[in-house]
Amino acid sequence: MRWVDRGPEPSGVAGYARQFTQGWINHFQTGTGGRPNDSYWREFRSLLGSRTGEICWYCERRCYASAEVGEQRPTVDHFRPLNRFPELAYEWSNWIFSCQRCNDGNKKDSWPDVGYVNPCAPEVMERPERYFDYDMLTGELIPKDGLAGSDRRRALLTIDDLSLNGLDVRFYRLDWARGFVADLLALPVPDRQPLVDMLMREPAEYAGVTGMVVQQMRREGYV
Length: 223
Ligand SMILES: [Zn+2]
Description:
By secondary structure, the chain is mainly alpha-helical. It is 39% helix and 7% strand.
């Protein structure tokens, strides 16, 4: 996971919020009215996805709109889930571009007391880069050294509840990182930084992992 700039709120969101938010509040908070069937946040799915080249902001795998690849189907996740925070149904800052696997398959309506790591956190100190590190041997995301208390718990729950170390995503991530390290080490040292710059600029799968690997390699003097 890496930090994503969601961009400014597009026109249209505020109008939907005015018109439809109360229905969600009535349903979940006051128990009046059936579950609303509006879901106009889906209209903004492509716009959100375009920020990262259609890559899920949680697991960093590419999403595909075609029906054959259900788990990688793009969705709009409500970071703070609808059932607990219906007032945020049409809140731009609560929408995360997410694959079906991470959203409907794993995160669902969960919201622990410490919350989750927010890929779009506005505060620098809350961004994913402060929470996660990468284990080069196993491909696992791990909480960063030095995290303690609720911060460490938030990192661990984000990894566990979204199954970010599930075999499906972990092996792809490991493959990517190994390929990247091999490509990098094959280059003469002065040519390594331009490759890093290019990959960090491109909307590439596992850009967050690439960033973590580069940090480790920098500490060891390879880049
Ligand atoms: Zn995902």
